[in-house]
Amino acid sequence: MDDRDPDKLPFGRRRRTAASALIAILVAFVLGVLFNAPAMKKTATELPFGGQRSVRLALVSPAAAVSHWVFLDRPARFAAAALGKPDPGLRPVEVVVVTPRPTPQPTTASGKPRPQPTAKPLPKPYAGHPMHLYIAGDSMVGIPGMALVNLSNDTHLIKPLLDYRISTGLVRPDFFSWPAQLQRQVKAFDPGAVVVMWGANDNQGVQTSSGKVYEFGSSGWEKEYRKRVGDAIAILFDGGVRRIYWVGQPIVPDSTYDRQIRLMNDIFRGAAKKHPGVQYIDAYEVLSDGGGGYAQYLRDDKGEMQQVREADGEHLTYAGGMRLAKVVMAAIKAEWFGKKKPGAGSAASSPKASAKATPAP
Amino acid sequence: MLFPTITFAVFFLLVFMGNWLLMPRPRLWKPFILLASFVFYGWWEWRFVLLLALSAVANQLFATAIERAATAAARKWLLAAAVAVNLGVLGWFKYYGFFVTSVVNFLGVFRLQADLPLLRIVLPIGISFLTFRVLSYVVDVYRGKLRTSSLLDFAVYVAFFPYIMAGPIARASEFLPQLAGPRDPRRVDTSRAFFLIFAGLAKKMLLADYLATHIVNGVFTTPGQYTSLETLLGIIGYSVQIYCDFSAYADIAIGISLLLGFELPDNFNAPYTAISVQDFWRRWHMTFSRWLRDYLYIPLGGNRKGQTRTYVNIMITMVLGGLWHGAGAPFIFWGFLHGGAQVVEHRRIDIRKLRAQRRLRASAPPLDDTSDLGRSTDALAAPAAGGPASGRAAGAPPGPPGIDTRPWGGGVWPRVGVFAFVTFAWVFFRSATFGAALSVLAQLFRGWGSVGAAVTPALLLVIAVGIGIQYVPRSLYERVEAGFSVLNPLAQGALLAVGFMVLDVVGPTGPASFLYFRF
Q1: Among A201, A284, A197, CA closest to A232
Q2: Which residues between 123 and 152 in chain B have a beta carbon less than 8 angstroms from any beta carbon of chain A?
Q3: What share of chain A is helix, strand, coil (3-state, %, to 5)?
Q4: What's the complex ipTM?
Q5: What is the dihedral of CA B313, B319, B320, B326, to 10 degrees?
Q6: Collapsed DSSP state (helix, strand, coil) of residue B11
Q7: B449: which of A39, A163, A215, B105 is 20 to 30 A away, CA to CA?
Q8: Is B459 in contact with B214 (CB distance < 8 Å)?
């Protein structure tokens, strides 16, 4: 099968035949699939509910079974455990039991009256005692979150923590459980205010705790998604958060996706109206042009034209992120630094309106 | 399609088998590999396959017309048209937004309104590399260095999937001759191929992506969150990240090509061991600097028109090289820094030569060819660095005898200095705006009071490994490749599978895009 190469290669390195290479590639491929079958099954499971997921699962499930049967799933598991990394295979979903927040007479699970987040005046941050600001969401909050962190640092009175996870959302806790993450972070970071932004990856089917899957946009989906939004709010307030700034999704050029986003934005807006202490930030309007349409470029507050959206039409450039972050910061300052009486459920709809409402820190 | 994915693994397995089954029948093999390349590229955005096809057809027409043109003037005009069309397409995709916003904002200073269309333009991945490839073909045909090939051969060269996204920039004169006959299936350099693919994946997943997520992205986007030490490590980390990321792609591309029977030029040669900035450019993105040298610097006059003109040509070449990476002041400044540093180094050598010339004049007959002054001492004009085997000091280009053509000498300190300079320049390369770069640099002086939570032994280890692997003698890698080559293919496959499993476990979750895709 192998030939000695007439052309000398360094240190006697031998060229091989293509057939020899094919054997090596096939062995590497088959063994590689068996070694990584648990991780591949996990990836397939995390795909949106539908045909592609079913096909992928049908392909990788037998490989995962064989891998387990011949003990080839163990090395990766042992290696991951030794390195302190999560198991590469399927893991149980982190279930968070959330007590619904009834209005207008809120009570905790223990029956004690739940304090209204807006009932007490907010503590004004001062030097040495910054307000902790937790910023959470999917990749869409990445860039505006970074801009918000920079704006927060400029105040010297806000200590920010940006926590964004790519491809996550509220509909797939099996991929990443935001309820569990929120619980952990409010406990560890003790934020006074939280900025959240989800939805970009939530335009897919959702599975309820009973196992039923609802297609995106169906009434069952809307009901379940509303519940999950409410659960996230409840977790944050239960953890001691005083204010939530819920950032909606910005306008996108794709009309189908845009319709989906508007549906989710309506749910976010509705939740903000329903829950005192939650303010809806209308990113859709902030990043639309004067006529309410999609804009790749917008003028900033100095009148300079800037590219606000990446070429994908979805993610924000830093200039776009800063535009949105300024609106969020204006809303935060109005409540935490201003003399204005904190309003519940109000919406910061445009940079202009927010700028007017922004007192000096 | 990204290399480190199961989708690519399946794709490559099928292409590998088809490649060698059809190789003896070029009439079948060429359409097959072209189709495979289109599938690979179209996996991301099928509409841009049309761009590839159009580029191949248009440039083949230009090259054929140039070859058949009756007069030198016609050839020149056709070449100019080809360059204009290719750069026009590149400019449309890459610089349109920057151009329009610059015009609108400039006119705005004078309170003038310009209603220019502000479009959403998706940049086709690898369009800059595509432009380099097709221009090398057309220009080499114009220069008479290359004869036009068939359209099918040229299309294969344009679209060959291993290098289509981010190089190396194989020239037509390097690749097209390999299409002249079938590759020999008995002589595949599999060991080197597997080593390069594995090393590339390791550099990407274990080093580059680790640095990106653990420190670099944070330091460059929210510098106020980091201490000075973290900022310093973030900046150094970016130097390591961009090397590990970009060279990883090149390694994998070269490895995959070798498995298909094709050789691509090397793109990196331990760049952070460079002893001068000129030397750095002989080691960093070598196919790019070669391209700049042959298709920009030399046509500008190179070093043939006196010292001052040489310096100007270096600056023009490097600033345009910076602009190639993207529109914006930071990229231009990055090119300016590298050009400026090379001019300074060039000047040092020229002064040495002048002094040597004066000494010679005082003691012996004058040099016959004073045009030697300034010749072959800049990175753009010099061939690849000579090592000890060439009889010259490492990193030193050829020069008149008795003159040290290494601007800063050899040893440790020039290496440290060049690395520090290159790392400083990367700050501008990485930052979205000039202001953002200055914010990062300012943070170096603001927080030396504490170490910072991001400074961990793992981070220091990754940075040390990322730099250290460049100091490992090449012979050591070659010994490993030689040792691997004598193993039974079953053992080779098993070892590779174990290696990939370790990468998968230790590396980050999910494949990350390569940095140079956006250029």
Answers
A1: A197
A2: 123
A3: 45, 15, 45
A4: 0.79
A5: 170
A6: helix
A7: A163
A8: yes
Report the C-alpha gap between A48 and A205 in whole angstroms.
7
Contacts of A252 in chain B (CB under 8 A): none
Contact assignment for A318 to B17 by CB distance below 8 Å = no
**Cβ-based neighbour number of residue B318 at 10 Å:** 29
From A295's Cα to the closest Cα of chain B, the distance in A is 9
Residue of chain A whose alpha carbon sits nearest to that of B431? A318
DSSP string, A196-250: EE--TT--S-EE-TTS-EE-TTSHHHHHHHHHHHHHHHHHHHHTT--EEEEE-PP
| Region A174-183 average pLDDT | 91
Q: Is the per-residue pLDDT at B390 higher than 50? A: no
Question: In chain B, whose CA is at the least distance from the CA of A319?
Answer: B432
Residue-range domain boundaries for chain B: 44-179, 189-275+421-519, 278-410
Mean pLDDT of B268-281: 94
Q: What is the pLDDT of residues A151-161, one digit of tens each?
A: 999 898 999 99
In this prediction the pTM is: 0.83
* Residue B134 CA: distances (Å) to CA of B45, B114, B139, B506: 21, 35, 9, 40
Query: Catalytic: B285?
Result: no
Average pLDDT over every residue of B147-175: 89
The answer to whether A130 contacts chain B (CB < 8 Å) is no
C-alpha span between A303 and A320 (Å, rounded): 14
Catalytic-role residue among B214, B285, B325, B338:
B325
Report which of B171, B116, B169 is spatially closest to residue B140, judged by C-alpha positions. B171
- The structure tokens listed for B240 are 């390591």
Partner residue opposite A76 with nearest CB, options B436, B481, B505: B505
The answer to whether A45 faces chain B, any CB pair under 8 Å, is no
Tokens of B199: 């090393």
What is the C-alpha radius of gyration for chain A, rounded to an integer number of angstroms? 25
> Is some CB atom of chain B closer than 8 A to the CB atom of A297?
yes
Task: Check A32 against B502: CB less than 8 A apart.
Answer: no
**Which residue in the set B118, B478, B501 is minimally distant from A32, CB to CB?**
B501
**Helix (H/G/I), strand (E/B), else coil: B285:** coil
CA distances B74 to B70, B145, B246, Å, are 7, 18, 40
Domains and CATH numbers, chain A: 10-82 (no CATH), 131-356 (3.40.50.1110)
- Provide CB contacts within 8 A for A254, sequence distance 6+: A313
Say if A81 is an interface residue toward chain B (CB within 8 Å): no
The predicted-structure confidence for A88-125, as pLDDT tens digits, reads as follows 887 767 667 676 555 545 555 565 555 565 567 888 88
Size of interface A-B (CB pairs under 8 A): 180
What residue in A sits closest to B19 (Cα-Cα)? A18
The HSE-up count of residue B172 (CA atoms within 13 Å, CB side) is 29
| Token pair of B412 as six digits | 């440790």
Cβ contact A26–B504 (<8 Å): no
Nearest by CB: B16 against A22, A160, A317? A22
Whether A10 and B478 lie within 8 Å, measured CB to CB: yes
C-alpha angle B418-B420-B422 in degrees, rounded to nearest 5: 65
Distance from the A27 Cα atom to the nearest Cα atom in chain B, whole angstroms:
5
What's the mean pLDDT when you consider all of chain A? 84
Structure token pair of residue B242: 């961009």
pLDDT of residue A167: 86
Q: Could A154 and B224 be called an inter-chain contact, meaning their C-beta atoms sit closer than 8 Å?
A: yes
Q: Which of B135, B498, B289, B300 is nearest to A34 (CA)?
A: B498
pLDDT tens digits along A2-42? 444 456 788 878 888 999 999 999 999 999 999 988 888 88
